[in-house]
Design goal:
Layout (H helix, E strand, L loop, with lengths): L6 E4 L2 E4 L15 H8 L6 E7 L10 E3 L4 E14 L4 E13 L8 E5 L2 E9 L1 H4 L7 H16 L2 E9 L3 H8 L8 E5 L10 H5 L5 E2 L1 H12 L12 E4 L2 E6 L3 H22 L6
Parallel strand pairs: 1-7, 8-9, 8-10, 10-13
Antiparallel strand pairs: 1-2, 3-6, 4-5, 4-7, 5-6, 11-12, 12-13
């Protein structure tokens, strides 16, 4: 049984593809049983996607969306060019895994859906909400996150929210938000005061915490400033969404992000099951 992408549709232009079986040993498993199991959705392997056309913009996490099945790119474009007397032909290779199981037709059409990471930043501050002063930490987080994604060469869309230190306001905003977000960062409300509610609202929503991140931050900066050890900030995951609760001071935000952003990329790969080793 052959595995054929009839064509890739990218920005309105169609690119022909070739039978994966033609590339021999470059795909690990090519037996009929392998493809039968894949089509029956009993396994979700990585597959080598081969097609003609010079699509160097195809990156990790981008989706190949077909009529009945969806692939996520796990290793971006590798291109080789063959020159002939008549024309120059470019063959592009990318590794992908099934992200949305379904039926794969022999002549399915696919389109590329670039991954745009969704980022939500929530500032919790009664006084900033009442406009007694401007929000400084939310824009600061936005600026540093933008730089981190640019350095990673991935697109992101950032949404800033300003709320009072109120449990109901935060719960209302979070309702359904984590399921459509890749990175959620709050600032403010991580202390021990009566209006510090961010950790109490967010921690129960997490699938699990990643305690080492915040432990390192509290130890690192707590030796210089004992007050830093009073922060109750948490780091964790809700589905594939990374969640962090940061203090409300610009200095603390810079310190926390210095540690958090070092692991962000690798954590995305791990949660999406992409082996980077």
């Amino acid at each position: 049984m052959s595995f054929i992408l009839k064509k890739i549709i990218f920005q309105g232009q169609e690119y022909s593809s070739i039978d994966l079986n033609q590339i021999g040993e470059e795909i690990a498993l090519t037996s009929e049983n392998y493809y039968r199991e894949m089509l029956n959705n009993r396994i979700h392997p990585e597959n080598l996607i081969v097609f003609d056309g010079n699509l160097h913009s195809l990156q990790d996490f981008d989706l190949l969306v077909g009529t009945g099945i969806e692939f996520m790119i796990t290793q971006g474009i590798k291109a080789s060019t063959d020159s002939t007397e008549s024309k120059e032909k470019t063959t592009c290779l990318a590794r992908a895994k099934i992200s949305n199981p379904g039926n794969l037709g022999e002549f399915d059409n696919f389109r590329i859906q670039p991954k745009v990471f969704q980022v939500h930043i929530i500032t919790l501050s009664d006084r900033a909400y009442r406009k007694e002063y401007s929000d400084r930490t939310g824009p600061l987080i936005k600026e540093q996150v933008e730089v981190a994604f640019e350095d990673w060469n991935h697109a992101c869309e950032i949404h800033n929210h300003l709320l009072p230190d109120d449990e109901n306001h935060l719960q209302l905003l979070l309702d359904g938000l984590l399921e459509r977000t890749d990175l959620l960062i709050t600032t403010g409300g991580t202390g021990v005061g009566p209006r510090d509610i961010s950790v109490d609202v967010i921690a129960p929503l997490l699938d699990f915490e990643i305690p080492g991140i915040m432990e390192v931050i509290r130890v690192k900066y707590g030796t210089e400033n004992p007050h830093a050890m009073l922060s109750r900030g948490v780091a964790g995951m809700k589905g594939n969404c990374q969640v962090y609760t940061l203090p409300g001071s610009p200095k603390a935000v810079k310190e926390y992000l210095e540690v958090i952003l070092k692991t962000m990329n690798h954590l995305f790969y791990m949660r999406y099951g992409i082996d980077t080793h």
